[in-house]
């Protein structure tokens, strides 16, 4: 019994020293990690920019996602989004995609995009670009995106490159037909055939 008591006493004395030391080590590590995290996650805005963001009612790096009635998905990313008037939202430096349910993907980018509250049409303006899985690369000053259906319509002239070559047209329309999407160029299409064209810009 005396042997057990001696061993027990020795273990108690050791733990009285070891446990506080272990606690100090853990606390030191926690403060060290917290300090490193704090130094590497500073806000990427100055105080002036933060004040301007608050004054202009804008948000940085927003994203928007929607699903059409046919199951296609629309995802839009932007640098900033801000209020424009009482019922409008304007996004700057847009990029995104229309991902069809059959696996096709159409890329989108534009300088700005405007969405009126209560409507389902996003107006894209400023160096608007559309890329299609068939190899077409389209550039236009403006495109209207119907979020409910995924239909894209250009209200003005477009320029494109694709497998046949380069073309200019008065407008375009991208819409779902059955399980596929049909890209149609309208309004006096002018095609310059190039057998080496691949659809790159």
CATH architectural group of the largest domain: Sandwich
How many runs of DSSP E, i.e. beta strands?
14
CATH class of the largest domain reads: Mainly Beta
Largest sheet: 14 strands, antiparallel
Strand content: over 45%
Overall spatial form: globular
Distance between the termini: 89 Å
Q: Helix- and strand-based class?
A: alpha+beta
Number of domains: 2
Spans of 5+ residues with little confidence (pLDDT < 50)? Answer: 33-43
Classified in CATH, the superfamily of the largest domain is Lipopolysaccharide (LPS) transport protein A like domain
CATH fold-level name of the largest domain: lipopolysaccharide transport protein A fold
Radius of gyration, Cα only, in angstroms?
A: 29 Å
User: Which series of helices and strands comes N to C?
Assistant: HHEEEEEEEEEEEEEE
Number of helices: 2
Q: What portion of residues is helical?
A: 10-25%
Pfam family, one: LptC
InterPro entries: LipoPS_assembly_LptC-rel (IPR010664)
Protein name: Lipopolysaccharide export system protein LptC
Describe what is shown at a glance.
It is built from two helices and 14 strands. It is of the alpha+beta class and 201 residues long.
Description:
The chain has helices at 2-40, 47-56, and strands at 58-60, 63-67, 73-77, 80-83, 88-99, 105-116, 121-131, 137-146, 151-153, 158-162, 165-169, 171-177, 180-186, 190-193. It is α+β, with helices and mostly antiparallel strands. The protein folds into two domains: 1-42; 58-193, lipopolysaccharide transport protein A fold, CATH 2.60.450.10. Strand 4 (80-83) and strand 5 (88-99) form a beta hairpin.
């Amino acid at each position: 019994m005396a042997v057990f008591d001696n061993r027990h006493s020795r273990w108690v004395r050791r733990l009285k020293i070891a446990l506080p030391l272990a606690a100090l080590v853990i606390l030191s590590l926690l403060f060290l990690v917290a300090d490193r995290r704090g130094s590497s996650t500073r806000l990427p805005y100055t105080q002036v920019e933060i004040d301007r963001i608050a004054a202009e009612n804008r948000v940085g790096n927003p994203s928007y996602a929607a699903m059409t009635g046919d199951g296609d998905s629309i995802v839009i990313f932007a640098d900033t989004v801000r209020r424009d008037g009482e019922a409008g939202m304007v996004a700057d430096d847009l990029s995104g995609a229309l991902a069809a349910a059959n696996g096709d993907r159409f890329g989108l980018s534009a300088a700005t995009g405007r969405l009126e509250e209560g409507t389902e049409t996003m107006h894209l303006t400023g160096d608007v670009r559309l890329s299609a899985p068939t190899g077409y690369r389209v550039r236009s000053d403006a495109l209207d995106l119907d979020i409910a259906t995924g239909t894209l319509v250009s209200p003005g002239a477009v320029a494109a490159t694709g497998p046949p070559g380069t073309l200019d047209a008065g407008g375009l329309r991208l819409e779902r037909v059955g399980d596929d999407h049909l890209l149609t160029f309208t309004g006096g299409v002018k095609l310059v055939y190039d057998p080496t064209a691949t659809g790159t810009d």
